[in-house]
## 1
Amino acid sequence: MSRTDDRHEGPAEALTLDRDDVLDFAGADDLVAAGRVTPPGAEAVRAARLAVAQAALMDRPDLRDLAAPVAPKPVRRRRRLLVAAAAVAALAVGGAVYPVVGLGGDPAASASAASFLTSVADVASEGTATQAPYWKVHKEVVNEDDGQRTDTVYFDRAGRIWWMEPDGSVTKQGPKLKRWPVGKDLLTWRQLSSLPADADALAARLGDGAFAQASILLEDAPVRPAVRAALFEILAAQDGVRLVGTVKDSQGRSGTAVEYTTAPSEFTGKRSTIRLVIAPDSGKLLESSSRTAGRPAERATFLEVGPANHFD
């Protein structure tokens, strides 16, 4: 589909490219001779966007390390970080140009944000699944309802919850079970094991608000490494995600921040901006925060999240 109507107004010469400029690459004559071709599929478009993303990272001296190629290893169909320039050109000859722009009226994912999040997905995929009986979450939260507090909570695979009290004792919490939102469902740890590791299939399970839902799961959900990698890929695919760069969280830990502004709430009509601070070398989510106009900022800082064999 042509996007000519979406261009900004300006001098006519700014909108015109010489044919020889557009087709100035090896193999162009063959592509022209082939005539009009079927528009590229979603996988080809994704690969082209990621190629542009890698190039954009190289233009940021503070982020060039994130664009370094990873060591060769088996990869799933869902991740293709690098494509040749000819592939990008082929997209144009196919009848539509696919720069890193947004669709549906929203700003696009910045090239550098998409590249960073995809590289973190590769890191996350290398994790090891756990057989531990418990999952520990030690975090500090700041919000309007609770003020500032620090909690240590344990969950088992059935969803049962234990709280660690200030004196170090552990108390089981009644009949309530720990569940994580996945689309319209609420799943226990055991049920999370059935989530698909394919990013497209997982995004379909999450439905609307995929960035917010994926962020919640990345905060403290005990999903297997392949699913965690798919969650980062979902973040990378969202139009409007932005790379902030290197920051420090509230504990002084260094990480890379990305931000995303949600669609207006159906209840308040207001948008919220979500910031995630991620450790690029481990794929751990260090901190998440949210800002909404007219409301105090909310923050969760994850001090320790992972498997546990006992309460300590």
## 2
Amino acid sequence: MSAILLLNACSTLQEPPVRPVASVKDVTATNTIDPGKLIIHTLPIGAGNCQIAQCPSGNKLIFMDCGSGGAGSQNWTADDARTYVRGLVNTATEIAVTVSHPHVDHYRYLPTVLDNLPVRNLYLSRQLSSYNAEFQHWAAQQQVNTGMAITTYPGFYHSTNPEAYLGCFAPNGHGGWQSEVQSYILAVNAGTGANEGSMVLAMRYGSFRTLFTGDMTDVTEYRVQVPAGLGTLQTKVLTSPHHGSESHGSNSASWAAATRPELVLFSAGTRFHHPRCTAVDVYWGYVGNDSPGHTFHCGNTSGWVNETNTRNILTTDSNGLIRVQASQDGTFNFNWGP
């Protein structure tokens, strides 16, 4: 039975359950510099995306987008995200930022979240002028105050070697550093539209691989390039394209088959009934089925489907803050909370 049939058989169409708003949000993070594992933090910021990779060593954070269009059950504000990030840094933390494409739900929070933290490198699809005035002002101030380097891509690009400033490094025992996590841009500016031009980023930590996809479409998928250092698109943890949209070929069956994720994360709010149940369905046969029982909702043209199961599928709107901790041997664990 397909996942969609299973969902419809076990659940009823309804609006997402109303969650009480706590008087004080728990937006604190335990400050563990150099945690010894690659940690991926996916923040519940509503209809948008905000993800942070925390390096195992080297005291470094790598942001993959951080913005919201509102409309969600969790709705961390920019100030909430700022508070959380302050729990991950100290005065020596190195920060790099990627923005997948110039839609505000992927970058609007960054000027607040990183307002007085020095950013060393900023990677953008398209030129800086494609982003709004507030973001341009923030970038200019970072350049003046911290010497932040900005890398933009006016045309199609993919990595053939690891992007050094988007990777993680560890002491080599001889007074130097060695590569620990390698990052590759698999595609950026694959088409003329903003979504299809999304930056698709892969990270490899030994046998562990993870993919960040922005709002990629089928146009992006067709132009994704796999560098020799990555070897395969097959991944342990996948952040679903376009918040779980089914439009313009996002979350296609061919993409699911190529990536074969063990865990899928949907960063979404309540706009457009994301993630769509059809998008969830394509990953159903690949993800693990061993997580603690939890509820998530997906949408279709009739409304919402609420499902409780043990599939390794999580949505920020249903499950809140999601943290993945990965080891070099390819094993990983994950947890979630409000």
## 3
Amino acid sequence: MPKKARIREIELLRGLAFLAVALQHAIAHYAGLNEARMEDGVLMAILLLAAKFAVPVFIFITGMVLFYNYDGQLRYGSFLRKRFGDIVVPYILWSAVYFTENPGWSGDLLHRLETFASHLVTGKNSYHLWYIVMIVQFYALFPVLRCLMRACAKRIPFRWRAAALTGAGMLCLLLVYHLFRISGFMAEAEIPFLTPFFTAYADRNFLYFSFYFILGAAAGMAPDRWSYWLARGKAAYLAVFALLFGYYMYITVQGFATPDGVHFSFIGLSLLRPLIMVFLVSSIFVFYAWSKTWSESSGPIVHKAMNFLGRYSYGAYLAHALMLRQSYRVDARLFAGWNVTLRMLMSFLVCVVLSYAVTVALSYLPFGKWTAGVSSLRRKPRESVPAQGQPSVRNFDGS
């Protein structure tokens, strides 16, 4: 299969999504400080809403890249081996790092190993690792999802595909709308493995995030058509984004004032809510269109920066929770007494710099791909092209 053209905006979009994740986690820490005032809460709410696109965009990119690259014969075994080495192995190693960093784990060695294994499967070794558990489900089920998407593409006339995609979105909204009802039903059923998947760990169940992947898959199968709708629907998705941004700003800030004083809570912005999903879908369109415009108009230096942000984003994502803890120490020494919002932004910047620095450093080690998700060591030139072709657009893990 011939090498495909690069989708240049993907690298920038991936890098932006990582920055948005790090910003959200910095906000979560500083919003709980006693020194935070109402104006800090308002600014953090604006930044948090602007950064909510991160997870949906990561999932969208995964769907788009997989369906763009693997449109020919798929060898499931080699596909899984590659994903295991590029995604799962770094996840296991970083899970071990976070497990040893967490205080309070007591008991003998066997108990610790059992706890680690349980947290490894559920993504509980650190607050940000739930995403890896969720996205791995899409990789594992990719052949099935690929068959379903191809079957739909064959049976649905071209002029009805946008409507079919909208219908899939509505079904996903209904699924999220009935999340608690489904959870209650599964709790009563007590089905091994499946019940926790829909109750305690529903927030990492791929089904509730499936529309972002389906939208990405549709874009990857027909990138020209995706660009067409991106341009044609600009007024619509910008309007939806602006209206819902304003709505969520209003209800979020309104909830800050409580009988006990000012308390900053952003629980109303959690991902698994039907209306917030509409906002997040619109944000995919907004940030993709912006990334596409910027990547097309930028020079070579900016493109190198974009590629850098995207290339090392997976390792930076795995490392950033630990780096954020280090940024709090820098904050305590250098920025104590500053405005809380400024302190938050400084910790965010320190976290990003450290995360990328650690990832780049690890990538130059012989085993760098196992820890950083990408290797910066030069590869020996290949004499032949693999049957599936060498993907020209990389996934979240950098492959």
